[in-house]
Specification:
Layout: H1 6-25, E1 31-35, E2 37-40, H2 56-74, E3 79-84, E4 96-103, H3 127-140, E5 149-152, E6 161-165, E7 167-171, E8 174-178, E9 191-192, E10 246-252, E11 255-260, H4 266-283, E12 287-291, E13 300-308, E14 311-319, H5 322-338, E15 341-342, E16 344-346, E17 352-354, E18 360-364, H6 372-375, H7 377-389, H8 391-395, H9 411-414, H10 418-426, H11 437-444, E19 460-461, E20 478-480, H12 489-508, H13 529-545, H14 556-562, E21 565-571, E22 574-583, E23 607-615, E24 631-635, E25 638-640, E26 643-644, E27 651-658, H15 667-670, E28 676-682, E29 687-694, H16 711-720, E30 722-725, E31 746-748
Helix pairs in contact: 1-12, 2-5, 3-4
């Protein structure tokens, strides 16, 4: 399992099974899902793989991946669904969402895949075929002929398709299908669609339909285990305009498309699919099923593939055990690779990057009411508290875009006063004491948000836990949104195992310590890899004490991917002494003055930060966090605050700098600080002992082309930007150290004259 050796993976797998055993013994009932993201291996410099959500290649690859995953994960009896995703500001119609669904009881949702129209293929259908299909579907549903309403494009002569108001209602104590007349449109007996290219089901002018004189029809909710809906002996249509849900049949691009409305009952959805398939078989006409997916958590499960800025996102169905997780995600990555999709790319300067999208992890149960988070709300308290205690859990697995305005800010980054309010809320989440789900939602929803109050953009998201105002999202789920897509399957599985171990630990031993006030340190020392590594080692020590021993070396791939070493140079006269430069964390703020009309938000990525580490610089007592008194490190002539790690001769500090100019920026923002020239001075001997130069771009001064590059070219570019210096001059005078009270670990070159 890449990137691990067979022996390493054997140990990881054994730990995964041990965690499973603990979860089973404790009767936790954990189900774990995820949202990995992918990009095209050979064209990730295209806009659709950079920051736009939609694009032709993305849609084509999504369709190919859907069919591959359906064959491998679902197989016979599953439904291939071309549905609706989210509607974002600035976009006219919802994004597409390609899905595959199946019944958990083993019964088929769709009998014969031959009646699925091939994606993107013109089957030669005409509008008359849509009329014939609607007539046959009405017969299968035992509804009167002519109930379907012809729908026309604004200036068309022939119908584009047909609309069927449709609902499951109760008649004679039994659920039955019914429809109703729609009266009040400008032209009686027909509908003129709203202009556009979206599916017909999204272009019905319902605002032109008058309110009914009678009450709206009420949808009944037969359970999936109930008998199929049978035709009544005598059909009674509902009064005019009392049904606002509608199925549509249209011919689009030479193929029949059937648009399903948002049906609330799984039994009704299944029976409607049965009628549609019977119609397709009777007429020998394959169809595309589109519109709304099956209702959640009623015995139907599945996955969806959706577009997101720069990536394809796969919302994968949950797995209950470690072996199931391994099999599922191994299959997912294998099929994605077969489509030409990958999990990583390279920056123009050669630095390794993730997809730019997330690899979110969701926790829940087999059914919402069985969710561990709802049965034991103190588990949510433990997870929020422990994540807040250990910034390494927030930053090691995150992408480049971190900080208060990111997609997944820490709880203490979003609001300065939230910790106090959280501690008040936690008083109601006493360990192992039941709390009503609506109370949990009311306590935590106002607090787990980003700076704008958005409940979705937060590191630990409870949008789908139990939102009181949105019953369809009461799924009992907690979503970890601070995980970027790692470059290997094994790394992603290790992340999931880490979270599973926390659940097992906190289920037995809740973590209820007071929240920590990190203050400005989150913007200073917690940006340095060395400090994060110390914190993460403390996390692994805690887990080992709880009985879940993770090896630190298993996480090396995350460190080298997220915080790679730029280079290392030995100091003069002693190879054991060296200067090391490594990438550090730098948040990229959202640009408040930028035109933002879509879902992707422009950020200021002109700034970078790196860590300076000095090893073998013995001379001062190794008191942790004390400043070096013998060795001074200069960056572009300014002193870097080098602080002891507690290990004799080892010191670290940070340098914050502007690596590139912002487009159209005024002079104060246009000044670049690179290249960075580092000098190490032995002040006791008044001697220059080593140095290096770091380039943020091509050392020759020519910007790298932002195109797809090979791993070999990326490695070459990455390596050439660090240049050791074997000779240097002692400055006439070593300048004094200038410290900012909020950043005692960091030299910010923007503050320097």
């Amino acid at each position: 399992m890449p990137p691990y050796s067979p022996a390493q993976w054997q140990a990881i797998d054994a730990l995964g099974r041990a965690v499973d055993q603990a979860l089973d013994t404790l009767n936790v009932g954990l189900a774990m899902g995820g949202k990995p993201t992918y990009l095209a291996c050979d064209s990730w410099d295209a806009l659709e793989w950079q920051y736009t959500a939609l694009g032709p290649e993305k849609r084509r690859l999504a369709g190919e991946l859907l069919q591959r995953l359906q064959d491998r994960l679902a197989g016979v009896g599953s439904l291939r669904h071309y549905g609706l995703g989210k509607l974002y500001p600035g976009e006219l119609v919802p994004r597409w969402a390609l899905g595959c669904f199946w019944r958990l009881d083993g019964e088929p949702l769709w009998q014969n895949a031959a009646w699925f129209a091939e994606d993107g293929l013109d089957h030669g259908h005409h509008w008359q075929d849509a009329a014939t299909f609607m007539d046959e579907l009405l017969r299968c549903l035992a509804l009167p002929a002519g109930t379907g309403i012809p729908a026309f494009e604004p200036d068309a002569e022939h119908p584009h398709g047909f609309v069927l108001p449709l609902l499951t209602v109760e008649q004679g104590g039994q659920p039955v299908w019914t429809s109703c007349p729609w009266k009040g449109f400008p032209t009686p007996g027909e509908i003129r669609l709203l202009p556009g290219t979206a599916a017909m089901g999204l272009r019905i002018p319902l605002m032109d339909l008058p309110l009914p004189e009678d009450d709206f029809a009420i949808e009944v909710m037969p359970a999936l285990s109930d008998p199929p809906i049978r035709p009544p002996q005598r059909v009674t249509l509902a009064p005019p305009n009392t049904i606002r849900l509608a199925l549509t049949v249209e011919m689009r691009q030479g193929t029949l498309h059937v648009f399903l409305p948002p049906i609330a009952s799984a039994r009704s959805y299944v029976d409607l699919l049965t009628a549609i398939e019977a119609t397709a078989e009777s007429l020998d006409q394959p169809v595309v099923i589109e519109g709304y997916p099956p209702p959640h958590n009623q015995g139907i499960q599945g996955f969806q593939i959706t577009p997101a800025p720069g990536v394809l996102e796969v919302s994968i169905h949950p797995a209950a055990s470690w072996p199931d997780l391994v099999a599922l995600h191994t299959a997912l990555d294998a099929e994605a690779a077969a489509c030409g999709l990958c999990c990583s790319k390279f920056a123009p300067d050669g630095r390794p990057l993730g997809t730019g999208g997330g690899a979110h992890i969701t926790l829940g149960g087999h059914r919402p009411e069985m969710s561990p988070l709802l049965r034991r709300p103190d588990l949510l308290r433990s997870l929020v508290t422990y994540w807040q205690h250990h910034p390494s859990l927030s930053y090691l697995f995150a992408g480049q875009f971190i900080g208060p305005t990111s997609q997944a800010p820490r709880v203490d980054e979003a609001h300065h006063d939230v910790l106090y309010e959280l501690e008040v809320a936690f008083l109601s989440l006493t360990p192992k004491r039941p709390v009503a789900p609506e109370i949990v939602d009311a306590l935590l929803r106002p607090l787990l948000t980003d700076v704008t109050g958005n409940t979705h953009r937060t590191a630990l998201c409870i949008d789908k836990l139990f939102p009181v105002g949105n019953p369809r999202s009461q799924l009992g789920l907690l979503e970890f949104r601070g995980f970027e897509m790692p470059p290997h399957t094994g790394l992603r599985l290790l992340q999931m195992l880490l979270v599973r171990a926390f659940v097992a630990w906190f289920w037995q031993h809740p973590f209820t310590q007071p929240l920590k006030r990190w203050g400005p340190a989150l913007r200073d020392r917690w940006r340095l890899p060395h400090v994060l590594a110390q914190d993460f080692q403390a996390v692994l020590t805690d887990l080992a004490a709880a009985g879940y021993a993770f090896e630190a070396e298993w996480f090396d791939g995350f460190w080298e991917h997220r915080l790679p070493r730029y280079g290392q140079v030995s100091l003069v006269d002693n190879p054991a002494r060296f200067l090391e430069l490594r990438a550090a964390l730098e948040p990229w703020p959202v640009l408040g003055d930028a035109d933002d009309s879509g879902a992707s938000r422009p950020v200021d990525n002109s700034r970078e930060r790196l860590q300076v580490r000095l090893v073998g610089a013995v001379g001062s007592p190794p008191e942790a966090e004390s400043l070096s008194t013998r060795y001074t490190v200069l960056c572009n002539g300014h002193v870097v605050p080098m602080r002891s790690t507690g290990v004799p001769g080892e010191y670290v500090g940070g340098v914050r700098f502007r690596a590139r100019s912002r487009p159209n920026s005024p002079p104060p923002l246009a000044k670049r600080h690179t290249p960075l020239t580092f000098d190490v001075i032995d002040t006791w001997q008044n001697k220059w002992v080593g140095g290096a130069v770091y380039h943020a771009d091509d050392p020759d001064g020519v910007p790298y082309a932002p195109t797809v590059i090979s791993p070999e070219e990326a490695q070459r570019r990455f390596a050439e930007r660090f240049q050791p210096r074997r000779r240097g001059a002692m400055p006439a005078q070593v300048p004094p150290l200038v410290l900012h009270p909020e950043t005692p670990y960091t030299l910010d070159l923007r503050l320097m004259p």
